[in-house]
Design a protein that fits this description.
By secondary structure, the chain is of the alpha+beta class. It is built from seven helices and 16 strands.
Length: about 300
């Protein structure tokens, strides 16, 4: 029987309220990496995953001639879920005086903070501790050197003006989100809380706690790839996309490409040059049958990779 591949929305649906899941599903549409990556629920906040780093030896042999037997190599790696806090509080005076009503105002606070939490996860997915040192390790940690086989250099050299294309193979043994405490997000009721300002004077707020645990599993670096150093003078094109796809080993081919809007425009413009009708090519949605997803979590101000 094949192992079922769960998504984040499916994992969270088992442990949270329908109202919360409804809000999460609305925000997930903005973040394709969270929506597309496989997800696993774990009982605690850390777990160990077994990664095969080398194949066992096998071979043909003649009659009455033995061969050397070597075991496969395995490595145990730990995945740690980090605590993500999206709790909020807001002055009661402002809340009560909102033109569309207090309840609408407070519900929008919950929605906005969940949206911000999902964006935080999306950015952390790619840039990891470079984005937030207290968060989980991201895909960039595996792809930040030109010596990595699945890193393709576009050739740009202008500092802090580069963007990247990432390719990811997702699955329960490949790249997946790990949701701690079986995917439970603690979203308490909206309560009244007394606070003090900078002068020590008190006022009342409405507050809500929203927090959970999430980590990112990269089963093997073979599951991820990157085109780096894409700049205005060294734009993205299909030749680079082909090189990225070709860098993946058989069995680890990516499920999707992820890029910024700027990178998509570069790819579209490169295809326009070869448009048989003379009209601009449409925005690309795939490359060699592999879908392209646009995400605002990949920025256009990356450092140059050397």
């Amino acid at each position: 029987m094949a192992i079922q591949r769960w998504t984040t929305s499916e994992v969270l649906a088992f442990r949270n309220t329908e109202a919360l899941i409804g809000l999460i599903r609305e925000t997930l549409a903005k973040y394709p990496e969270i929506n597309n990556f496989a997800a696993v629920p774990i009982p605690q906040t850390t777990y160990k995953t077994l990664v095969q780093t080398a194949l066992p030896s096998v071979g043909f042999r003649a009659d009455n001639v033995g061969r050397e037997v070597q075991k496969p190599s395995w490595e145990v790696r730990s995945v740690e879920c980090k605590f993500l806090d999206a709790s909020w509080n807001y002055d009661q005076k402002v809340s009560n005086e909102f033109a569309w009503g207090r309840e609408f105002f407070l519900s929008e606070q919950t929605r906005a903070h969940l949206d911000s939490a999902m964006r935080k996860i999306a950015v952390q997915t790619w840039y990891g501790i470079a984005a937030d040192a207290t968060g989980f390790i991201g895909i960039m940690s595996y792809l930040n050197s030109l010596t990595v086989p699945t890193v393709i250099n576009a050739g740009g050299t202008t500092a802090n003006s580069a963007t990247s294309v990432f390719a990811v193979s997702t699955g329960i043994q490949k790249v997946a989100y790990a949701w701690g405490q079986l995917g439970r997000i603690d979203d308490g009721p909206i309560v009244e809380v007394e606070k003090t300002d900078e002068d020590g004077k008190s006022y009342w707020t409405y507050a809500q706690k929203i927090h959970g645990h999430i980590g990112l599993q990269v089963g093997t670096p073979k599951c991820v790839g990157r085109i780096c150093n894409i700049t205005d003078t060294k734009p993205l094109d299909d030749k680079l996309m082909a090189s990225l796809l070709n860098s993946f080993e058989t069995g680890f081919e990516p499920d999707a490409f992820y890029m910024s809007r700027k990178a998509r425009t570069m790819l579209q413009q490169s295809r326009t040059t070869y448009s048989p009708t003379g009209q601009p090519a449409p925005f690309p949605e795939e490359a060699w049958g592999i879908p392209i997803f646009i995400t605002d979590a990949i920025n256009n101000t990356e450092a140059i990779v050397t």
